[in-house]
Amino acid sequence: MSVDDYRPTYAVAAVYDLRANDLLRQGITAVLVDLDNTLIAWDNPDGTPEVRAWLDEMTIADISVVVVSNNTYSRVERAVSRFGVDFIARAMKPFAYGINKAIDRYGFDRDEVIMVGDQLMTDIRASHRAGIKSVLVKPLVTSDAWNTKVNRWRERRVLAKLEEKYGRLVYQKGFNGRIILYRLRYSDPNDKKARGWLYTCCCFGKGN
Known about the structure:
By secondary structure, the chain is α/β, with parallel strands linked by helices. The protein has one domain: Rossmann fold, CATH 3.40.50.1000. 33% of the residues lie in helices and 23% in strands. Strand 2, helix 2 (49-60) and strand 3 (64-68) form a beta-alpha-beta unit. It is globular and about 40 Å long. The two termini are 16 Å apart. Residues 178-208 have low confidence and may be disordered. It holds the Pfam family Hydrolase_like.
């Protein structure tokens, strides 16, 4: 298993930064979204006005939104019922089971689907296994449910390896579907002791 298996295609500050027009320009017609700490805070099942506004924007643009969560059916149903959103419970992330189930159930084109989540170890890994694009977002709240804390510890180690290889990950405020800025460490090829920093733009518009 490579550290690249946990590398997100894009990174934005929050799911609400994914604007409908930007998604459509990138050919995205379906958004699979994690529930806790991505769509809603894990300790606030009522959500926020931003959630409702974002879901309304997706509906108006005819972009499908499906919650893909590892939580139980009753927990997910209770959380999303007030929003009228379809869902897949017990998704078994980091495996591709839940993502594949959503794609098959709703007849999505895999190239037009994106998975949004706040965890490298589950959401992003599952996206790679399913062969779809992914968006890493910051957790809505800094605290986590007990069963997520172990993943966070592992995630910090994986993120450190990703940043060692690719540079510091920058969460974009907006979403253009193509460019993430990385700060990459480089060496002078003529002097092994020399070190410096190079800012570069990396295109991630195609593939995962």
